[in-house]
């Protein structure tokens, strides 16, 4: 870690070289987004290299986005068609040269990052251009990922005032139209709304299945509101399957590569990341991230979660045991830095006291640090979201990571870092689960509410039994699936 910090300060040429060998384009001004050039220097070298095919696909996508993005003739043409023809049949109309998929900002930051990556992969597979709803604070969090253009949906987009309110009851909701038999091969509406939330019906999830030349393929504008990582279900579409295998020969690296390509914290957030890293993590011999998210109705400090954290980290030997009897062993003195993130500061305070009041059996030193303790979720408040992103990013820079079951912030943190996390099972009836945690089989996030069917036929199936590289998530009781 010391070495890494030294490199960061002195050698930006090396950073550029790394960038070129990686999947990022070099067509950016370094100062406008420092994280893009510096983040690989804060990470250990990764054994997971992107495929040549993914790199070339991204370069082609960047060209497409420049040709179709905001401010282009193609964009003007496409938005012109969007208004004034609302009830017309588009089958025989020219729909312009570009087709789009709009990501609507909804739910917490972890959900947003997972769904934006999912929507981007869908865009890559279908030749669409992804545009991002900027009505919330997305541009305070992330730099532009595509050179010479913008991914932000312009404020004057014709449907701007409506997209946040779309739901299953909306007449252009794809699932609702399917249920009402209002979609057929001759009717191509100017836009469709896709509802990929935890409460989606099977008809809503079917949009991931249609044939390449189906009517919804021609729809110029898809508007997506999602809060789940739906990437695993893309593999069930036979039209995408071969392409996905070429793009991601190592299946568990999908989010890792896409997130590394798309999500670069703005300079303000990156400053928070690097200041914390340099002060608390850079000198440690070993770093551990612990992300604590409690989903009980009465939020706050919960003693059995504290006990669970201690039980998990000791059982899995992620932290040293306390000495019994209390003698000051002086053998090792290795520095273990523990980064705790939580809305509540009590978890890290207790851990800190535990390792201050008594020595460890190995003589190792344990230093505990928690950047913020915001107490309650304040999504869309700029500084609150920036702190949440900085903490997710910091977690991703640790050597080992423990996360709370079913938390999208935790999923993003471990997957962005290319780490297989230890998952703290969700406690039932206020008791510490036994075992308290489990090591995940892969670094991919979980699709928490996956479909109950594949694409081949309408029969209900267990999706975890179809491909050898899809299995149930370790941490969800229901039908979650993940790639591994
Ligand atoms: P999930 O609910 O855990 O799946 O994650 P989400 O990102 O969807 O929603 C949680 C939101 O609560 C985050 O976006 C933050 O606004 C806030 N939050 C939760 N845990 C933390 C934390 O450890 N640190 C900070 N700064 N914010 C948090």
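-> sequence recovered:
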């Amino acid at each position: 870690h010391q070495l890494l910090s030294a490199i960061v300060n002195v050698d930006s040429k090396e950073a550029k070289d790394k960038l070129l060998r990686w999947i990022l384009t070099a067509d950016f001004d370094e100062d406008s987004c420092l994280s893009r050039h510096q983040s690989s220097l804060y990470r250990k070298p990764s054994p997971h290299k992107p495929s040549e095919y993914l790199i070339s696909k991204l370069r082609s996508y960047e060209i497409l986005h420049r040709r179709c993005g905001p401010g282009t003739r193609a964009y003007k043409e496409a938005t012109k068609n969007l208004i004034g023809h609302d009830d017309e049949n588009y089958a025989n109309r020219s729909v312009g040269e570009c087709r789009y998929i709009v990501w609507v900002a909804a739910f917490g930051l972890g959900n947003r990052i997972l769904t934006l990556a999912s929507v981007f992969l869908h865009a890559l597979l279908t030749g669409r251009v992804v545009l991002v709803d900027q009505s919330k604070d997305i541009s305070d969090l992330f730099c532009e990922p595509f050179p010479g253009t913008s991914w932000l949906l312009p404020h004057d987009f014709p449907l701007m005032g409506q997209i946040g309110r779309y739901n299953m009851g909306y007449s252009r909701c794809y699932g609702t139209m399917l249920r009402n038999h209002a979609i057929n091969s001759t009717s191509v509406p100017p836009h469709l709304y896709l509802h990929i939330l935890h409460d989606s019906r099977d008809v809503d999830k079917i949009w991931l299945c249609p044939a390449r030349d189906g009517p919804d393929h021609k729809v110029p504008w898809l508007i997506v509101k999602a809060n789940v990582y739906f990437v695993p279900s893309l593999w069930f579409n036979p039209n995408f399957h071969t392409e996905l295998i070429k793009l991601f020969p190592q299946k568990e690296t999908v989010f890792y590569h896409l997130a590394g390509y798309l999500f670069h914290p703005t300079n303000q957030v990156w400053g928070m990341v690097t200041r914390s890293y340099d002060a608390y993590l850079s000198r440690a011999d070993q770093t551990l991230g612990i992300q604590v998210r409690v989903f009980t109705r009465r939020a706050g400090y919960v003693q059995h979660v504290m006990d669970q954290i201690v039980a998990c980290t000791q059982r899995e030997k992620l932290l040293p045991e306390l000495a019994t009897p209390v003698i000051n062993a002086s053998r090792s003195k290795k520095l273990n830095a523990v980064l705790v993130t939580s809305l509540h500061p009590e978890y890290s305070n207790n851990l800190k006291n535990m390792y201050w009041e008594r020595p460890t059996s190995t003589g190792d030193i344990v230093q505990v640090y928690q950047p913020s303790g915001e107490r309650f979720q304040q999504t869309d408040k700029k500084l609150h979201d920036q702190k949440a992103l900085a903490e997710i990013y910091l977690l991703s820079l640790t050597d080992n990571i423990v996360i709370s079951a079913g938390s999208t912030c935790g999923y993003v943190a471990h997957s962005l870092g290319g780490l297989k996390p230890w998952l703290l099972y969700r406690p039932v009836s206020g008791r510490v689960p036994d075992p308290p945690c489990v090591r995940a089989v892969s670094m991919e996030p979980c699709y928490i509410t996956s479909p109950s069917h594949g694409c081949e036929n309408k029969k209900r199936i267990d999706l975890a039994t179809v491909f050898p590289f899809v299995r149930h998530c370790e941490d969800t009781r229901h039908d979650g699936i993940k790639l591994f």
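Residues 107-111, 293, 341-343, 372, 374, 377, 379, 384-385, 387-388, 391, 407-409 surround guanosine-5'-diphosphate (CB under 6 Å).
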